[in-house]
Amino acid sequence: MRARKAILLFAVLALLAGACGGDDDSSDTTSGGTETTAGTTETTAGTTETTAGATETTATPGDAGGTLVATRFESFDGWVLDSAAAYSSYQTHLAVMEPLIRFTEDGQSLAPGLAKDWVYDPDALTITFTLQDGAAFSNGDPVTAEDVAFSLDVWRTGPNFGESWAAIAAVTGEGNQVVLELEFPDNTILPLMASSVSGIMPKDFAGMTEDDFYNSPIGAGPFVVEEWSLGGRIRMTPNPHYYDPERPYVDELILEVIADETERQNLFEAGQVHINEYLSPTVAPQYNEAAVYECIVHSIEHIGLNVTRPPFDDLAARQAVAYAVDYDAIDAALGEYFGLPSGILAPNIWHWVPPTKPYFRQDMAQAQELAASSSLAGGVDVEMIYDAGNELDTLVSQIVQANLAEIGVNVSLTALETGAFLDRAFSVDADITPWNYGAIQPDMGDPMIWIWATGWLFSGYETDTLFNDFLEYGAAETEADQEAVVAKIQDDAIDHAAAIAVAEGSYLHAVNTDLTGFWSAPWGLYYYDTIALGS
Q1: Contact (CB, 8 A) for 500 and 302
Q2: CA geometry: angle at 332 spanning 326 and 335, to 5°?
Q3: pTM listed for this prediction
Q4: For the CA atoms of the chain, what is the radius of gyration?
Q5: pLDDT of residue 383
Q6: Which residue of 142, 211, 235, 414 lies most exposed, with the fewest beta carbons within 10 A?
């Protein structure tokens, strides 16, 4: 784990410009603090106040109650928030350990969560949250500033996101007020508070040991965990102490891991499943078009090359791979919802810009020339691991295997269950690792955090430079300066070829058309408690 570093971040809060199925709203900025309201980000002089003006779409229940069933192909990572790497886990955590803030459907603003409003005072360097009336954990204990302070201490110990809260010096408060005292201005804190890694937990794990708490988690979210397993069923029921007595609208939530796409589709079409999460783009066309929920392009499919050992500790070898990949073939294989990559950073987030140089495209002559002058000369054997339940990764692995054979690289494929795959991926324990990522909060800083948390997306490439880029991004005083940092990271990804984007596209869900209140943020996450059964 890296030592904590001071993060000097001076820019005002930037919010996501892209949205699922919608047009971008404009931003009006002047000097001073930031006031966030629905649909726009407006900067005015003085103190920043954010209230419940940013509304979220909820259900208008037909017949309230019933059992909502959703399936996913990924295994669950467990309840340790920082350890989550699969979207299925982020999705699940939000239902139980609710953060102070929520994201909105359009991705352009933040909405109330456990906090009904908040005020950022840039002069005092404080963010004051007002908790929802009646905010309580599922055991009946009220949510207090002490719980938030305890949660912060837990978040900080995480090896993946722990450094993200470096600016927070203390958490104080009284009654329904929670005050974050900052050591220095930090524009990443508010959007980070909408992330599932920022779920609020009871102080001292509600008197349980840490292990017992993570086996039987207690949160202040809309649902209570009744039973769960890593690779099977998770069953939840409504939290009787939830601050909104109207939500959730269902009596039971069941989440099932079903790796086989055909089985998931059959269950959906038979009406036994209401939502199939994260459809493969190759399978989505088989569903009724009205049932497919498509987000704006945001997803990055990529491969990581292990730079910590031969043969990919050699830049020329990595570049040979980058030019050997048939991006057009991957585009064709993944179908209409994916296209050619434009960079390593997930697009359609505030301040995203493409690289300043052309991104990789197949050039087999150049690939073979590079291979002949690199550690690949004479042929090598390498291993490529992939998540067996992810059809995108399966297709990409097969295409890359065939492409690399043309430059003398013999790729053996190892299919793994999601948990086993992630264990090896985070350990940088394979030569080539394909995966897919997007943001989990509405700020460009999130992809930066993620690609350094994954060691440049499972390549083992040094991340000190990237971390310093992140500091510069946060300290930038103008939008142009922030975008320059983003472009630099994009260019560095091309120059070092440690992690290579091979496609970019949309997150997809199959959603029963009789449901009300379903919506998804651009990055594919959504809330179960806004959904009701029936038309």
Answers
A1: yes
A2: 140
A3: 0.80
A4: 23
A5: 98
A6: 211
Per-residue confidence (pLDDT) for residue 270, from 0 to 100: 96
- Contact residues for 63 (Cβ-Cβ < 8 A; gap 6+): 533, 534
d(CA 381, CA 233): 39
> Do residues 340 and 302 make contact, with C-beta atoms less than 8 angstroms apart?
no
Helix (H) or strand (E) holding 196: none
The pLDDT, as a whole number, for residue 8 is 29
- Helical packing angle, 315-324 and 364-372, nearest 10°: 160
Q: Residue 15 is encoded by which pair of tokens?
A: 């919010």
pLDDT for position 200: 98
Nearest to 56 by CA among 224, 194, 235: 194
109-123: b or e for each residue (b if 16 or more CB lie within 10 Å)?
A: bbbbbbbbebbbbbe
**pLDDT score for 418:** 80
Q: For each of the domains in the chain, give its residue range(s) and CATH number, in order of start.
A: 299-505 (3.10.105.10)
- Closest to 186 (Cα-Cα) out of 341, 377, 12, 371: 12
pLDDT of residue 260: 87
Distance, in Å, from the CA atom of 59 to the CA atom of 64, rounded to the nearest integer, reads 10
The segments of the chain whose pLDDT lies below 50 read 1-58, 60, 62
Pull the structure tokens for residue 44.
Answer: 């005015």
DSSP for 132-167, please give it: PTT-B-TTSPBP-HHHHHHHHHHHHT-TTTGGGGTT
The C-alpha atoms of residue 409 and residue 394 are separated, in whole angstroms, by 18
Under DSSP, is residue 169 helix (H, G, I), strand (E, B) or coil? Answer: strand
Do residues 110 and 184 touch, judged by C-beta distance below 8 A?
Answer: no
- Strand segments, DSSP code E, in 53-125 are 67-72, 101-103, 110-112, 115-121
Quote the CA–CA distance of 476 and 488 in Å, as a whole number: 14
Locate 239 and state its tokens: 């939290």
Q: Which residue has the tokens 């820019």?
A: 11
